[in-house]
């Protein structure tokens, strides 16, 4: 009997080993569809990276190499003078960069707060008129009044050439309200019920339960709001023409690239009249304006996790 048991145990171990090997081979087996997806991803990555590499190479190359069109994706005759002139000579650029950073932080905090405060009440079945409110919110997503009515409205509200015009109109995104509401509805209802039994009010439930469990969607919304504000310039272009000191960095960069304004060359008069030198400064301006928002992605990457509510409710 003991021998038979030992044989059965050995046989069972061999069966498990064979199954593990089969599963491992199945995992390592790649199909044509997998290779096709990898190929498309590589093409998309190259399409996104090559223009950025070209701009970086242009900002680090000499004016002579740019004038002779010798620069592709690698710097020719390495020069870093463009970054020095941009940072130290053009105070307007650095001031706009700092103002855009402050504006982005303020807008992100306000937008995320308003989105949460709009989405959270819509999760309560007891809210009177919840369906009508939701329809009105969705209506604003489908229909827009247009630029001229917006300009007239902002003029009547004294928001033209007012920095608040860059903050107030876009405080809530209907898309993220829907996403946030859907996420809140997906949280276990027993959490809220148990908190209500303990005497917690809706605000306490939101702060103590919903927000800690909503870190991924909050981080994603904050990232999208921040990117949108950092890259936005059309609102400043239409409503802030009279206050150039409050122009975001993207509007300043837009004006520089389109030759609407020149880069201040107080410390380097030789830049004027040198097209090659101007191109290096433009490339450096694009790189400096892009790097800060790129640094935000790795910091928020850790919030993009799945299953944060697993184990929150037992039983």
Any idea what the CATH superfamily of the domain at 90-261 is called?
Answer: MetI-like
CATH topology of the domain at 90-261: the name is MetI-like fold
Shape: flat
Q: Can you name the CATH architecture of the domain at 90-261?
A: Orthogonal Bundle
The helix/strand class is mainly alpha
CA distance, first residue to last residue: 42 Å
CATH hierarchy, class of the domain at 90-261: Mainly Alpha
List the SSEs and their pairings.
Elements: H1 2-28, H2 32-59, H3 63-67, H4 81-89, H5 91-119, H6 130-142, H7 147-156, H8 174-186, H9 189-197, H10 202-213, H11 215-231, H12 234-239, H13 249-257, H14 275-301
Can you put this structure into words, describing what you see?
The chain is 68% helix and 0% strand. It has 14 helices and no strands. It has helices at residues 2-28, 32-59, 63-67, 81-89, 91-119, 130-142, 147-156, 174-186, 189-197, 202-213, 215-231, 234-239, 249-257, 275-301. Helix 11 runs antiparallel to helix 14. The longest helix is centred in the middle third of the chain and has 29 residues, at 91-119. The chain is flat. The two termini are 42 Å apart.
Q: What distinguishing features does this structure have?
A:
disordered N terminus, MetI-like fold, 14 helices, disordered C terminus
Write a concise synopsis of the structure shown.
The chain is mainly α.
């Amino acid at each position: 009997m003991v021998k038979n048991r030992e044989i059965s145990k050995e046989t069972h171990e061999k069966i498990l080993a064979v199954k593990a090997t089969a599963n491992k081979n199945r995992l390592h087996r790649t199909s044509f569809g997998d290779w096709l997806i990898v190929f498309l991803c590589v093409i998309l990555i190259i399409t996104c990276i090559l223009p950025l590499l070209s701009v970086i190479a242009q900002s680090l190359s000499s004016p002579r190499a740019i004038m002779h069109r010798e620069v592709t994706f690698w710097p020719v005759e390495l020069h870093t003078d463009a970054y020095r002139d941009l940072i130290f000579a053009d105070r307007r650029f650095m001031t706009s960069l700092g103002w855009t950073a402050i504006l982005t932080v303020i807008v992100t905090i306000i937008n995320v707060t308003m989105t949460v405060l709009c989405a959270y009440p819509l999760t309560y079945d007891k809210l009177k008129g919840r369906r009508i409110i939701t329809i009105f919110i969705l209506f604003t997503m489908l229909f827009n009044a247009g630029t001229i009515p917006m300009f007239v409205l902002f003029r009547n509200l004294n928001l033209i050439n007012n920095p608040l015009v860059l903050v107030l109109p876009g405080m809530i995104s209907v898309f993220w309200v829907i996403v946030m509401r859907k996420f809140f509805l997906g949280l276990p209802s027993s959490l809220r019920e148990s908190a209500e039994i303990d005497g917690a009010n809706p605000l306490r439930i939101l702060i103590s339960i919903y927000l800690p469990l909503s870190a991924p969607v909050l981080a994603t919304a904050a990232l999208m709001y921040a990117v949108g504000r950092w890259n936005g310039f059309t609102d400043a272009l239409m409503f802030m023409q009279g206050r150039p000191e409050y122009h975001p960095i993207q509007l300043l960069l837009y004006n520089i690239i389109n030759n609407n304004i020149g880069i201040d060359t107080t410390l380097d008069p030789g830049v004027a009249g040198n097209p090659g030198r101007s191109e290096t400064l433009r490339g450096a301006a694009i790189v400096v304006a892009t790097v800060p928002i790129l640094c935000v992605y790795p910091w928020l990457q850790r919030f993009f996790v799945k299953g944060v509510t697993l184990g929150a409710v037992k039983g």
